[in-house]
Amino acid sequence: MNYSYLIVQEEGSVLSVVLNRPKAMNALNNGLLSEFNLVLDQFERDPGIRLLVITGEGEKAFCAGADIKELVELSALEMKAFLSLGQRTFRRLETIGKPSIAVVNGVALGGGFELSLACSLRIASETASFGLPEVRLGMIPGYGGTQRLPRITGKGKALELLLTGKRISAEEAYQERIVNVVAARDTLQTEVEQWSETICRNSPVSIRMIMEAVDVGSHLSMDNALALETNLDALAADSNDKREGFAAFLEKRNPIFEGK
Ligand code: CAA
């Protein structure tokens, strides 16, 4: 597959995608989002791929958000279509049943920050920064930022970022539990590899069930969420992964999971 806006590479169980518009700070345009959906098709269909890693090309940006130049002239209806494409794409990423890591290697602003929030985990380089500047543009975050950020960091900090539009450092994002880990630029790749290896060694069946329990459960009452957890766990119990996991424990060896 030839991509114009992405660099896509498969390495073992990991599919890596690089947002490749460095001259525009890797801003999200229609073409990039459409291509990203093709990557999600591959991610979803190929059982050998267990993890998606997303980063930005170049030294400066993970992603500076929606392409402002493409948005300037849009009518309300065109804007609705553009926003809904991004929302559907990010929701698909979040609920696809396999984990994703945003490797935030520079600025993550607006839709770029929102893309990282739709990923399962965020690893930031120490030079990364995060912000939702839409309030300075007369818009609001339209790719889920008003919903995902408060769920991750809490309402108080989310409103601070949403209402001021200010940028925070990777270290502050870590303190606010927005990112999982901060790494120096020269150890970033090693850090990503370590997280990837750990996750890819685990049971894909467990991971799928955990992701559904956390996502769907967060919208339910505690009683209903616990019932969901029981049902998903019971479903996992009928998998080859569970048989392999238990057998490996009893035989004192490492399990080899197939995701079935
Ligand atoms: N869309 C389109 N082009 C962008 C862009 C964006 N979001 N962000 C940066 N660029 C372009 C710049 O226009 C510039 O292009 P030219 O060379 O053709 O002029 C190029 O990238 C380099 O940018 P700068 O010269 O500004 O570089 P800098 O290092 O001084 O600043 C920056 C970098 C802090 C990222 C700054 O460019 C910036 O603030 N960008 C806008 C960020 C923003 O407001 N994002 C929100 C977008 S709206 C959104 O995302 C809505 C939503 O929720 C869906």
From TrEMBL:
Entries under Gene3D superfamilies matching the protein: 2-enoyl-CoA Hydratase, Chain A, domain 1, Lyase 2-enoyl-coa Hydratase, Chain A, domain 2
A single BP term in Gene Ontology: fatty acid beta-oxidation
Keywords: Lyase
Any GO molecular function: hydro-lyase activity
Pfam families recorded: ECH_1 (PF00378)
Similarity comment: family membership: Belongs to the enoyl-CoA hydratase/isomerase family.
UniProt-recorded name of the protein: Enoyl-CoA hydratase
Organism: Peribacillus cavernae
